[in-house]
Amino acid sequence: VLLVANKIDNLPNDQRHQEFWSLGMGEPIPVSSLSGKGSGDLLDLVIEALPEVTSVDQEDESLIRVAVVGKPNVGKSSFVNRLIGEDRVVVSDIPGTTRDPVDTLFQYHNRTLVFVDTAGLRRQTKVKDNLEYYSALRTDRVVHTADVCVALIDASEQELHAQDIKILRTAWEAGKAVVLLMNKWDLVEKDTMTGPVFEKKMRERIPFLRWIPMLFTSALTGQRIRKCLDLILEVHEERRRRIETHEVNEVLEAVLKRQPPPLYRGRRVKVKYGTQVTIAPPTFAIFSNYPNALPAPYIRYLESGFRKAWGFMGTPIRLRFRTGREK
């Protein structure tokens, strides 16, 4: 605690601040907010009193950046606070309390997780002021620099809204691993089948949700919050998984044998071979004589075949089609 005596405008001649020694709170610090006198000394003392900031090596492969995203007031800050066991982030019933991304470091299973609580994302038509607009821009930037996105949805609403889907799709199309948390599960009237029925309904409505792990949680009670940490590590590893080229071609050959590509203008489309070219997210190059001729349903069929072989739960995978000579 620093004791600051304001309105000491005639420094150093004015010594009225000495009277506050009687409070027993240490040396009074004289300042004048009107003229700015003493403010430099005060800032020096503030900086001296601040705790040392834990430095994080951004190149450290054990570091996992986790963006906590969702609509306003779905419990993002409460989730982070419950996870680390302290009120690190301001929590309020008023939507939009969090304006700027807030970083929180957390150690789990010898990995450093950096949780970033972000501003809630509304539909563009409901963004009312410049502050909220730029908060949304910063949130979008955090999503694109994250490794894993934890998307929170208000389970008490018993419905997946268009904005929820947009947030999930933004993270997925950005190539991020995704974990979906149905928060406020303690507020839902339920029986043994409520969760499975709700999960089935959402996965049927949004196809890519089939590949995203879903957890029914409560930031208020702490229900299944720790399980989320295990899922974050799992989807992060899946996002960085690399498959040997011979395995890729064995699976590709089996998938093609089961269902060959459709003809293109009466000509046979040959898928020659494939290889994984990068990770985070896993990206495969598929070589064909007509790389642009494969229709979207067939590309989804190939992706499903890859997922059946290797899982890739919680992470998008990308197929890139290229021309190539016979191999």
TrEMBL record:
A UniProt-annotated Pfam family: MMR_HSR1
Keywords: GTP-binding, Nucleotide-binding, Repeat, Ribosome biogenesis
Record-linked InterPro entries: G_ENGA (IPR031166), GTP-bd (IPR006073), GTPase_Der (IPR016484), KH_dom-like (IPR032859), KH_dom-like_a/b (IPR015946), P-loop_NTPase (IPR027417), Small_GTP-bd (IPR005225)
UniProt GO molecular function: GTP binding; ribosome binding
The keyword DNA-binding appears for this protein: no
Domain EngA-type G: 64-240
GO aspect biological process, one term: ribosome biogenesis
The keyword GTP-binding is annotated on this UniProt entry: yes
Family: Belongs to the TRAFAC class TrmE-Era-EngA-EngB-Septin-like GTPase superfamily. EngA (Der) GTPase family.
NCBIfam families: GTPase_EngA (TIGR03594), small_GTP (TIGR00231)
Xref: PANTHER family: GTPASE DER
Protein name in UniProt: GTPase Der
Source organism of the structure: marine metagenome
